[in-house]
Amino acid sequence: MDTMFVRGLKRKCFDGEEDIEGTLAGIKAVPSYNLQRQSLLDMSLVKLQLCHMLVEPNLCRSVLIANTVRQIQEEMTQDGTWQMINAQNTGQASLDRLVSTDILCRSSGDQAEGKHVPAYGTFNKDFESDQAQDGSETMSTASSVQAPRNLQSNMWEEMENPQENKGNFQKSLDQIFETLENKSPNSVEDLFSEVDNSYYDLDTMLTGMMTNTKMGHCDSLETFSSPTNTASNSNCKSDLNDLDHIVEILVES
Amino acid sequence: GIQPVGGTGASWGCVSEVCLLSHGRADARGVSAADIISTVEFNHTGELLATGDKGGRVVIFQREQESKNQPHRRGEYNVYSTFQSHEPEFDYLKSLEIEEKINKIRWLPQQNAAYFLLSTNDKTVKLWKVSERDKRPEGYNLKDEDGRLRDPSMITVLRVPVLRPMDLMVEATPRRVFANAHTYHINSISVNSDYETYMSADDLRINLWNFEITNQSFNIVDIKPANMEELTEVITAAEFHPHHCNTFVYSSSKGTIRLCDMRTAALCDRHAKFFEEPEDPSNRSFFSEIISSISDVKFSHSGRYIMTRDYLTVKVWDLNMENRPIETYQVHDYLRSKLCSLYENDCIFDKFECVWNGSDSVIMTGSYNNFFRMFDRNTKRDVTLEASRENSKPRAILKPRKVCVGGKRRKDEISVDSLDFSKKILHTAWHPSENIIAVAATNNLYIFQDKVN
Predict the structure, then answer these.
(1) pLDDT value, residue B246
(2) Which residues in B lie closer than 8 A to residue A33 (C-beta atoms)?
């Protein structure tokens, strides 16, 4: 069994590949450095998005992947190749689009030959409009320096203002990063619907459970998220089962 | 030819190969996931060897005593005690399962007839007492031999219960449960040389406990940023100095080690020493940080050195030199060109442990394909051995293995592309004074001994 080379790492030639430098990457047999870097970025975002539903994700692994994402973004920012169109597409990123990333394994010295410096770079204006719609994030201006950090925002933090997050969520990188902590289904509305906040505060108080994290609204609300996208009725039922169980425990203690 | 390690012309052979019995759910491959060994540790005399598994069980092996009748059985380890240390739990507030997998076991030094060990899963540390019972009381007044209560009106004579010998029974009882102190996953526990305290470390915090007190612990390291957006580094391992009860080290995912002195402050946020090797700019890639993440840190028995394991190397550091390690050993450098694939299949995040031998002259760590490596610090020789069924027939001597990196593959060599990355040796242990090693290969435990010719 070939466990070494995972499916999806076969080399691919992209037709009409959008290479911002407009070079011959599409003609070469080996994908360009930029393409491979993009592929690595996509792969990393997919990894961050795939959360174990029942068990907490490994924080060390998540931090390392996130740091890798940031490194790629910083480099792409310096190159001027950073485009927020990528951000919109990451929701659909799939392993099929991955290409061989041999070049990335080489040291930076080797890469220097293969790397193309673009004549100029600019930010896609969509970036700014995306962020404007997503009002809950505290976005600074869409400047090149801060772009990587914006993408990191909300990655780890416990959501403290769930009400503000209701509404349309675009498939932005921020949403993907949020799912890391929340393990929520795709739509945030599923997360917050059919939930009785007040009961959960009571629960926290009575059981006196001590955690070091702030018990924001979101933390308590998270527990009612179901791992699968079921209809809201069945969400209710599983919620009720959870509540029954919790009541049992409270009564016994 | 065979490269002798750790002795004079000695070579390694199998002492016991133990297959842990399969319990519980078996997956499609027929291997029960619950039996995957997750930690291995000898006690301070080497008489006992404890293993923890993914199903929350602890199995303790005891070494056969020397016997004139059966001299060849000396050195064999047999099952001494088995108990369920941790159960799966459910965190209702976060809607998450808490795995019962045993992350670490650490023994306490023996102070009386009983044995004590600490075992931990992601959230809870437990102190277990393992003791032998070879006598039982007989002749109770109020109950008969079966335990049924006797009718008090039928008792006419009082007698004193006596202790009679019985078959040896080994029982494990939980003596302390240290819970609710870790928000993140516990990765290390370490017993202090004062034998009164120990520490538990998770991704962002380290807590100090007194063995007698379970409802509170002191937080001695906290690297959680005020704003979690700024989190870029986590704690990966921690250990107390073997002799100085105020000193400990912890490693990070950025490849750094911090040595802290608890006498300087209650919260050891400022390190006394900071060990980091400068990055080699010619080797830089997007994976540099990931492969620099330290998966294990161990003090030498002498207390003069620390050893760290990152993805591709083992390094030995002198406590007096912070700017670079004094020795670096390549474990499997042939993987350097495969990091992309290893990133995709998540193998790059595997956490290998490393161990010293009793005299600090040889270090050992695991690799893939059930290979493990030993490095002799004095002779600078190294050897690759394999833990597999074929090699573990009784008295069989392990044959050194070699990975072929390119070009022509010799007959006994294995090529990089043929390595089985699902067979990883993450956990190993070395007897404190003898050349006996324990190697965990998925759900099998191998015990090898260096047989002097």
Answers:
(1) 95
(2) none
Nearest to B229 among A101, A154, A220 (CB): A154
CA separation for the pair B418, B407 (Å, rounded): 14
Task: Please check whether residue B138 is in contact with residue B144, taking contact to mean a CB–CB distance below 8 angstroms.
Answer: no
Residue of B nearest to A112 (CA): B282
Q: Tell if the CB–CB gap between A71 and B420 is shorter than 8 Å.
A: no
Nearest CB to B92 within list A40, A107, A223: A223
- Percent of chain A's residues with pLDDT above 90: 10
Are the C-beta atoms of B349 and A58 separated by less than 8 Å?
yes
Coil/strand/helix, residue B339: helix
Asked if A69 contacts A45 with a C-beta cutoff of 8 angstroms, the reply is: yes
Cβ contact, residue pair A98, B183, below 8 Å: no
- Residues of chain A in contact with residue B88, where contact means CB-CB under 8 angstroms, are none
Q: Do A60 and B253 touch (CB under 8 A)?
A: yes
Q: Which of A59, A66, A209 sits opposite B203 (nearest CB)?
A: A59
Q: Is A210 exposed, middle or buried (0-12, 13-18, 19+ CB in 10 A)?
A: exposed
Tell me the DSSP string of B154-209: G-------EEEEEEEEEEEEEEEEE-S--SS---EEEE-TTSSEEEEE-SSEEEEE
What pLDDT, on a 0 to 100 scale, did the predictor assign at position B71? Answer: 60
- φ and ψ at A167, to 5 degrees? 115, -170
**Rounded-to-integer distance, Cα B428 and Cα B12, Å:** 15
Contact at 8 Å (CB) between B242 and B222?
A: no
Which residue in the set A4, A55, A156 is minimally distant from B341, CB to CB? A4
Q: Do residue A4 and residue B417 have CB atoms under 8 angstroms apart?
A: yes
Query: What gap in Å lies between CA B152 and CA A156, rounded to an integer?
Result: 67
CA-to-CA distance for A186 and A24, rounded, in angstroms?
38
The letter for the amino acid at B194 is D
Q: How far is A28 from chain B (nearest CA, A)?
A: 20
Q: What are the C-alpha distances in Å from B40 to residues A27, A200, B396?
A: 53, 41, 23
Tens digit of pLDDT for each residue in B284-293? 999 999 999 9
Residues 6 or more apart in contact with residue A114 via CB below 8 angstroms: A32, A33, A103
| Farthest CA pair distance, chain B | 92
Biggest CA pair distance of chain A: 71
pTM for this entry: 0.72
Q: Of the candidates A60, A152, A204, which has its C-beta nearest B234's C-beta? A: A60
**A138 contacts in B (CB within 8 Å)?**
none
Q: Give the CA distances from residue B35 to residues B30, B272, B393, in Å, rounded to whole numbers and listed in that order.
A: 11, 41, 22
A contacts of B420 (beta carbons < 8 Å): 1, 3
Average pLDDT, chain A: 51
Q: Residues of A with CB below 8 A from B184's CB? A: 59
Structure tokens that stand for B355 in this block: 């161990």
- What is the C-alpha separation between B53 and B36, in angstroms, rounded? 5
Contact A107 B282 (CB under 8 A): yes
Which residue type sits at A141? Answer: T
Closest by CA to B181, choosing from B201, B197, B165, is B201
CA R_g for chain A: 22
Asked if residue B423 has pLDDT above 50, the reply is yes
Burial B296-313 (b: 16+ CB within 10 A, else e): bbbbbbeeebbbbbbbbb
Q: What is the pLDDT of residues B9-67, one digit of tens each?
A: 346 655 554 433 333 333 445 557 788 999 999 999 999 999 999 999 999 999 988 76
